[in-house]
Amino acid sequence: MPKTLDEFETVMYAFAKDDPDGNGKQDTYGLSREGLNVVFGAFGQSVFTEQLYFNEKNNQLVIGALEPEMKKALAYMQKWYRDGIIDPEFITGENKGGYKHLSHAFINGKIGMTSMGNYYHWNQEGDYSVLNENGQETPVGASFNVNELLQKNATAEVVFGSPVIGPDGRSGSKGNNLLMNFIAIGAEAAKEPGKLEKILEILDYVSANPDPVEQIKMEYGLSGKHWNWSADASSSFYLLYPYNRMENYTNMIGSSIGMTVPGVPSDKREQWAASAGLTENGIYNRLEVATPALIQYSSELIRMRDRAYISIITGDQPVGYFDTFVKEFKDAGGQQVLLEANHWYKEHKETSRAQ
Fold this sequence. Notes:
Radius of gyration: 23 Å
Strand order of the largest sheet: 1-2
Number of strands: 8
Shape: globular
Strand content: 5-15%
Number of helices: 11
Largest sheet: 2 strands, antiparallel
Helix content: 25-40%
């Protein structure tokens, strides 16, 4: 596995130029849109995301996509695109429909590297064990992307690698925040006496409930119908047939109401991910709230970001256009977004110190 950006570049060129599928045609590529986030991460930022990512720098928040080191990352990508290393369809992404975390470009052998989805979309058969419907330990099957890949190519292998290290020693890739879930209550609830209070009472009860039996019940359903305790003394449980073979059955039975808070992962799947180093090197958004300016301007600012980055990568604009983009971005509301983000950041830090 490549550890540095230079080594990574060598591997990407091999994927594109050395005919890995052996068909005598130059119809494979190194990477696509999701993989580019690892390259951005080698310069300390995360860019191609569904939101604006804020990083800490010199004791304040900055928008990663505006940082000057992104010019270096874009210079790499423009050269790679010109040399046929980046999939020309990276603009529309790797997923072509269906389950949103599938990288069809990778599954179909068009690209050789991706960072699509989460770790549980990539485990291979036998990576860890699970309890089957009879409560017996059994090797886990291949999931999502790997399962689809093996149906295309039964001898394919997937290898995990850490985000590559850039010229300044930085590395990382897009991480999903621990505080990213929310529950919305319709405004009509406040018009019926006592209804909003009852909803909040329920949410207060299910939020981080200390009773493990109640937690499992709220998340997975009824004991004896949807799940059973394992025979050993461990507090582990297993799903019963047919629910163990149904994706997202919890939504169908109206459970999954348990609100979660950040904690130490305890499931075997998460333990496997941690042991494989998959919990490291995440680049997380340091702005944890939606400020008024962010609500007002973020949709257009994200479009501006994507248009500018894509135009530079494809060579429609020179790398120097990045400076023009930064100015236009700030003039289009980005400066106000930064001001409000840093106002929140300052208050947040002061509150944290006081606590």
